[in-house]
């Protein structure tokens, strides 16, 4: 499936007692015809009130605790079972989803983490709204805003997002010593007080057409800096997301999903990797 162009592979393990190891996620990422930005595994719920537990893997096999676009894709997959509103548990806690139209879903992404330990950053900073990039990275802005949406985000405000060399700056910033758990890197251009252009380098995956949690983190960072209102359209290369930082401090993300194809996994993809 894809959510605003962010490519998501959902592996439904609800009937099985099986965990996907990082090397399995990497093997699936390399299997012919199975490209993804994130692999979402669905598991039986651990609490009676939830619909499923889900894990989120990047291309490099690393785990994330949040994936906004993937969560909308899971919501669409489970809507085929007649559930238009869901409670999904992740390693970061509960996310709730609801359907607004045939292929449009909203996700309550929870409260942003704004303390330096929440992100986490490598050392204490007084104000996560403007963190000095030390040591500096050639070609990158000198300051960024740090936000956790359950996963770590660094948001750089730039005058022209199209001019950013994402392939060069993305890896250097993802692995910057300020981020002990690495970070998702966003370059945001403010178009209006309710309109933001965004390009994202995702931790563990690379440049993607969209990143829902980055869109949420960017809106929070922009509103904290007084650059926008608390609700805005985020324009990403793969499509638009509507983000609302609500008065109760939760962030709601709304956007499209597309179903691409369904298949079963050929176990030989794991043997190939072992060999
Ligand atoms: N594409 C996702 C974010 C996926 C996780 C991220 N790469 C991380 O490691 O935190 C989204 O839509 O939020």
From TrEMBL:
Keywords linked to the UniProt accession: Amino-acid biosynthesis, Cytoplasm, Isomerase, Lysine biosynthesis
Catalytic activity reads: (2S,6S)-2,6-diaminopimelate = meso-2,6-diaminopimelate
Q: In which pathway does it act?
A: Amino-acid biosynthesis; L-lysine biosynthesis via DAP pathway; DL-2,6-diaminopimelate from LL-2,6-diaminopimelate: step 1/1
Q: Which Pfam family, any one of them, does this sequence belong to? A: DAP_epimerase
Residues given in the record as substrate binding sites: 6, 38, 58, 68-69, 151, 184, 202-203, 212-213
Superkingdom of the source species: Bacteria
Annotated positions for site Could be important to modulate the pK values of the two catalytic cysteine residues:
153, 202
Subcellular location, record wording: Cytoplasm
SUPFAM superfamilies, per the entry: Diaminopimelate epimerase-like
Annotated GO MF terms: diaminopimelate epimerase activity
Report the main location listed first in the record.
cytoplasm
UniProt feature coiled coil, ranges? none
Q: Where is the active site?
A: 67, 67 (proton donor), 211 (proton acceptor)
- What EC identifiers does the entry list? 5.1.1.7
Which protein family is it in? Belongs to the diaminopimelate epimerase family.
How it assembles, according to the record, is: Homodimer.
Q: What does this protein do?
A: Catalyzes the stereoinversion of LL-2,6-diaminopimelate (L,L-DAP) to meso-diaminopimelate (meso-DAP), a precursor of L-lysine and an essential component of the bacterial peptidoglycan.
Q: What is the protein's given name?
A: Diaminopimelate epimerase
Identify the coding gene.
dapF
């Amino acid at each position: 499936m894809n959510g605003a162009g962010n490519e998501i592979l959902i592996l439904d393990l609800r009937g099985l007692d099986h965990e996907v190891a990082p090397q399995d996620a990497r093997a699936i990422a390399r299997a012919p015809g199975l490209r993804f930005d994130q692999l979402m595994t669905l598991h039986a719920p651990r609490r009676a009130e939830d619909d499923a537990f889900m894990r989120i893997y990047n291309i490099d096999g690393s785990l994330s605790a949040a994936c906004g676009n993937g969560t909308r894709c899971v919501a669409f997959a489970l809507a085929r079972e007649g559930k238009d509103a869901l409670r999904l548990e992740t390693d970061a806690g509960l996310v709730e989803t609801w359907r607004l139209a045939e292929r449009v879903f909203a996700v309550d992404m929870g409260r942003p983490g704004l303390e330096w330990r929440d992100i986490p950053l490598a050392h204490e900073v007084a104000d996560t709204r403007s963190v000095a990039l030390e040591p500096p990275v050639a070609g990158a802005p000198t300051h960024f805003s740090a936000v956790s949406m359950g996963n770590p985000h660094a948001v750089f405000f730039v005058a022209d997002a199209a001019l950013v060399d994402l392939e060069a700056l993305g890896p250097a910033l993802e692995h910057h010593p300020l981020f002990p758990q690495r970070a998702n890197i966003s370059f945001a251009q403010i178009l209006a007080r309710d309109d933001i252009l965004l390009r994202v380098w995702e931790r563990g995956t690379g440049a993607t057409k969209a990143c829902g949690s980055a869109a949420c983190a960017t809106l929070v960072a922009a509103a904290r800096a007084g650059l926008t209102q608390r609700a805005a359209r985020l324009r990403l290369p793969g499509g638009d997301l509507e983000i609302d930082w609500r008065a109760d401090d939760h962030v709601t993300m709304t956007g499209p999903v597309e179903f691409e194809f369904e298949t079963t996994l050929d176990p030989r993809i794991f043997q190939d990797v072992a060999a």
